[in-house]
Amino acid sequence: MNKVLEQIQKTGIIPVVVIDDVKDAEPLAKALCEGGLPCAEVTFRTAAAEEAIRIMAEKFPEMLIGAGTVLTTEQVDRAVAAGAKFIVSPGTNPKIVKYCIEKNIPITPGVCTPSEAEMAIELGLEVVKFFPAEQAGGLNMIKAMAAPYVGLKFMPTGGISPNNVREYLSYNKIIACGGSWMVKGDLVKEGKFDKIVELAKEAAAIVKEIRG
What we know:
Elements: H1 3-11, E1 13-17, H2 25-34, E2 39-43, H3 49-59, E3 64-68, H4 73-82, E4 86-89, H5 94-102, E5 107-111, H6 114-122, E6 127-130, H7 138-146, E7 153-156, H8 165-170, E8 177-179, H9 185-189, H10 193-211
Parallel strand pairs: 1-2, 1-8, 2-3, 3-4, 4-5, 5-6, 6-7
């Protein structure tokens, strides 16, 4: 695995962040760092995403910032120019994956079937996002898919919560889990950054508990 993926594995839980207002980027990044989760996958679904990545990357260089829900090569360019160190997509789009590989940008595309897993392997990937995790069969499905694809590792996202994250993290084919429970939209919009610190600390403690 490359250094970015190793860093993701070390963090264990990746906060999946939706930012509607650029003013929330800096205090949110600060809260995650204080909480012991110096990482964020900022979804490219909002107009504020690109500038939010830029602010977070500039103000908190120790953070590992990625861009999620990336659907075009143009979005890849914008995200990386803003400071994103990795790209996440909901599905496996060969065009985007090849583009990222050519530019040496780590990408974890989404898969939820064996055919998609094989496509990712064919494209040269070692790690994929399993999405939507709980809806697509959860940990049992990941274990079933991991059996024939021995070299593939997973980053499940979708329906991950404090109630099930321990089970996911305990499985050795999972490098990290994506989750939004510590950065829910209402907490961000209402400026409840102290609560985000608290939830991030709890999440970081779970990773330490499971992985030491």
